[in-house]
Write a structure and sequence with these properties.
With 124 residues, this protein is mainly β. 0% of the residues lie in helices and 49% in strands. The strands form two sheets. Strands 2, 4, 5, 6, 9, 10 and 11 form a seven-stranded mixed beta sheet that branches.
């Protein structure tokens, strides 16, 4: 499986961005999908997760501001980010795994497919 993340950039606090994750090699309809991020000097952390058949979970810090969406016709996952804060500054990664793969959804070692990351910078 190959994942290609894009859409990052520089935005002012309070602004919005939409990240995209184009997937090839497997269909997102049959995959658990997630977004993670890694801020400078920090470990990679979970942001949002979508089970293959629908339910979505978010880290408390982004609930109500970020939305994970999927376009099955394009085999693409999105992260709609609103009300951005300087603390959202990070490299954002998309990830995928087979639903049968064991592991906890918020742990990065659960995933066996990763995109290259896209940088989001939020200025104050």
């Amino acid at each position: 499986v190959q994942l290609q993340a894009s859409g990052g950039g520089l935005v002012q606090a309070g602004g919005s961005l939409r990240l995209s994750c184009d997937v090839s090699g497997r269909t997102i309809s049959n995959s658990d999908m997630a977004w993670f991020r890694q801020a400078p000097g920090k470990e990679r952390e979970f942001v949002a997760f979508s089970i293959w058949n629908g339910n979505t979970y978010y880290h408390d810090s982004v609930k109500g501001r970020f939305i994970l969406a999927k376009d099955r016709s394009r085999n693409t996952m999105y992260l709609e980010m609103n009300g951005l804060k300087p603390e959202d500054t990070a490299v954002y990664y998309c990830a995928a795994k087979d639903p049968s793969r064991r592991g906890v959804y918020y742990q990065e070692q659960s995933y066996n497919g990763w995109g290259q990351g896209t940088l989001v910078t939020v200025s104050s």
